[in-house]
Amino acid sequence: MKKNLLTLVLLLIALMAGAAEKKVSSPDGRLNVSVDIDGSGHPTYRVDYDNKAFMLASPLGVNTNMGDFTQGLMLKTSKEQRVTDSYELKTIKQSHVDYEANELVCTYEKDGKPAIDIVFRVSNRDVAYRYKVYEQGKTLSCIVKNEASAFRMPKGTTTFLCPQMRPMTGFARTAPSYETNYMLDQPMEKSRDGMGYTFPCLFKTAADGGWMLVSETGVDGSYCASRLLSSGDGVFSIGFPMPEECNGWGTVEPAVALPAYTPWRTITVGNTLQNIVESTVAYDLVQPKYEASKEYTYGKGTWSWIIGMDGSCNYDEQKRYIDFAAAMGYRSVLIDALWDKQIGYKRMEELARYGKEKGVGIFLWYNSNGAWNDAPQSPKHKMDRSGVRCNEMAWMQRTGILGIKVDFFGGDKQNMMQLYEDILTDANDFGLQVIFHGCTLPRGWERMYPNHVSSEAVLASENLHFSQGMCDNEARNGCIHTFVRNAVGSMDFGGSTLNKFYKADNRSGSRRMTSDVYALATAVLFQSSVQHFAMAPNNLTDAPAWAIDFMKQVPTTWDEVRFIDGYPGRFSIIARRHGDTWYVAGINAQDEAVETIVTLPGNPVRKTVKCYVDNDRLEGSLTDVKTGKKGTVKVRIPKNGGCVITY
């Protein structure tokens, strides 16, 4: 009798567990999410793609100062619906996006009261989820102490991760700023860095070599930005900022008004890297927070600082760079740090008038810092307070300045997210575009803030000036970004130099190890709607004419992106379309040359295409090539070299 009773109890438990599990699939049915809850009320989810386990059962939930909603929960209701959206956005990898996903909303109670919703969206290549936290009686606000949100990887998964920087370290105590070298192809068991890892985080799963990119989107001043922490057992969990960030100012626990939605956690999956390169999930899940105050335009520009450093930010040199930009047909020059001291406001107005006569606008550099670091470069204390900031922006509007580049932020706490949002909002009121540097990852900001252009959040081109070691590894790092950093947001890299050396004399300093064709290829590979290239006026006479002509014509806005081939840190080949013109670009960091046959998008059968190629001595040339009967071209890319095909 006891045995039969035990069997009945176990059967009832199994039936209850099965009833609690909810499933939601992508529109094409290949991507599936299963949401469950155990006997202690801990919610979990798992992700399968093409019937293979990409993510094992992983915990969910939020813990607040008014209640712990990570355990003791009971599923009350669930609702599924189709979600669609169509939008136009010039500043991302694809100008028109049609979004379709299935949404599952699971509503949980605790102690008989509404606790949280867990909202899942599943498109054909992306999984996203977020929480809705309910009011508790008369409690209309709370502190989110932490999240249970985690990602449990299958055994054998390897990682491609960028370690988080230790706060208040580095130049003038400006860290963290998402500027460390990636650790590639590391066993998951070794991914236990104490600081955690910056988003986005790439994983090669054990599920027959599939790929998965984990990130977040929709972060604004109502929450903090997050990172991934690893326990070394295959579980990567959401970690809030570190207390030492922002010089200790501000809390690591975000305060929210109820009801509140948290940012979206995103997971992009695929059997190849195609879904990751082509994903638009960072923008699909957010909406504009305000209307653009004017019709913003985009394009190429020049930037003296990367070659000439601080000393180049003087009136005569910037006038020379305006002339260079005009000769290239470029839209702008970026004038970097110390312009307020070395040029001054009155003479900057003169430069702006001179640039207008030449058809060239100006972006101005600013230091963000209030009390969160020691960066000495000026202009200082112009961006951290609303009254001063708006006065400065009013001057820029009167002067005809196009936009600003704001540098040296302090971390990922909620107060710093509020500063980003305040700068963007105020800048839009004065018709200014914004580039962030020394900063956090943009999390859907190109769509949320119509005047946001791009953010650095990567070990960018200035490190090539400062370090020969970075020059030696330029191709290795360049072969990462299309699959990781640039996959989720516009990237202000500031590269594509045609100088042989990172000095104004072009004879000393760090020596570039990559080819001219490599420089052309990265102008396509690295996506940002405003590109201030690391070119110099001397390139008009000392660089190959075919390279200069290409850099005059290459677009900075794109209508479509296609993954061709590649592997993070080894080689990268993708295609971008601007209007009716395709650009196929590739670079290689491996000792052996990449030799492959590329099927060109758009099916250019038996047509003549332009090919920029390198020989083994990294000597570039431009040739005309006839495509095959299937629209194919044979490609060979030597180490540190590149290839670009246009048609």
From TrEMBL:
Known cofactor(s): Ca(2+)
Origin superkingdom: Bacteria
Domain Glycosyl-hydrolase 97 C-terminal oligomerisation: 557-645
Keyword tags: Calcium, Hydrolase, Signal
GO MF terms held by the record: hydrolase activity
Domain Glycosyl-hydrolase 97 N-terminal stretches: 24-288
Complexes and interactors: Monomer.
The protein's name: Glycoside hydrolase family 97 protein
Species assigned in the record: Xylanibacter rodentium
